[in-house]
Amino acid sequence: MTPPRRQRRTPAQGTPAQPAAPARKEGEGGNPERLYVVAGPDGERADIDLVTLIVARSPDPPPSATPEQAALLRLCVAPLSVAELSAYLSLPFSVVTVLITELLTAELVQARSPIVRKALPDRSLLEAVMHGLQRL
Amino acid sequence: MDFNGSDTIPGPRAEDQLPHTAQSAVKIVIVGGFGVGKTTMVGSVSEIKPLTTEETMTQAGIGVDDNYGSASKTATTVAMDFGRIRITDELVLYLFGTPGQERFWFLWNGLFEGALGAVVLVDTRRLEVSFDVMGRLEERGVPFVVAVNSFPDAPRYPLADLRTALDLSEMVPIVECDVRRRASSRDVLMTLMRFLHSLAMTGSLA
What we know:
The structure holds 2 protein chains of 2 kinds.
Chain A: E1 53-56, H1 67-75, E2 80-81, H2 82-89, H3 93-105, E3 109-112, H4 123-134
Chain B: E1 24-32, H1 38-45, E2 51-58, E3 75-86, E4 91-99, H2 108-112, E5 117-122, H3 131-140, E6 144-149, H4 159-165, E7 174-177, H5 182-202
Parallel strand pairs in B: 1-4, 1-5, 5-6, 6-7
Antiparallel strand pairs in B: 2-3, 3-4
Pfam families (chain A): DUF742 (PF05331)
Region (Disordered) (chain A): 1-34
InterPro entries (chain A): DUF742
């Protein structure tokens, strides 16, 4: 009995293997925050990934916060990924990104960008992940 | 959801909270057909109870808005299970299990952007379900390993035969696993990490 067969594909021409998501350079210690440019019409979303970590700047939501914003702020007193916020709030990812964009604009939360895979992945990062998995 | 009683929205348990030192996260995606064990794998290695994030997509939401408002507009809810592993006090790893079926591929843009790599989970009873998934990863240049989830009643093929059937290059690791077991799922992730590491050493992203 032989299994069914498939044919290998190659990266699409002209499409970069990795979209140009500028990553923080390793060793640049400094400020881990990405600079968000939030402009344009209402509903515009900041560049937020499923694993961007969100942290409230203050444990107490301001009185001006909407109920949704207040709920989100209370959840991220400690860093929490956008995916987790979406899960706990039972809101779709896209809705949560809009809420976070508003809160970033109001400077009520901080966003910590994920480390993205680059053309040449950082070996020390991969080694750190391997080390962490070995502990499981 | 009614947010007016938002004091009561359950968040992470105290022991599941990330330390304030957590600076950044990385992600790995587990793809495969329906019922192949993605959710089981996420659950067996995650340090938190797996969570689900949803996205509602309409035709308009995927860039076709000419039927906006018409009765034929359809909405699809796509759910993804995910788990989390704390790597260090600064670094967190997230694992996403996502359906491999064609109608969900539009979700992949955001998901694979920046992912370290992927695990393609296959079931030898329905090997062909994973063909297109692998092709999509190859087109996007996302490095992946293949993990064969050993179901008791599934046909057993030598891995070399599977490699040929899946048209995998010699470089791409293929391993057998039992995703119900934490150690086995962790070994699959380790195989992916070692593969990524070797790619980093050779400077290629084949």
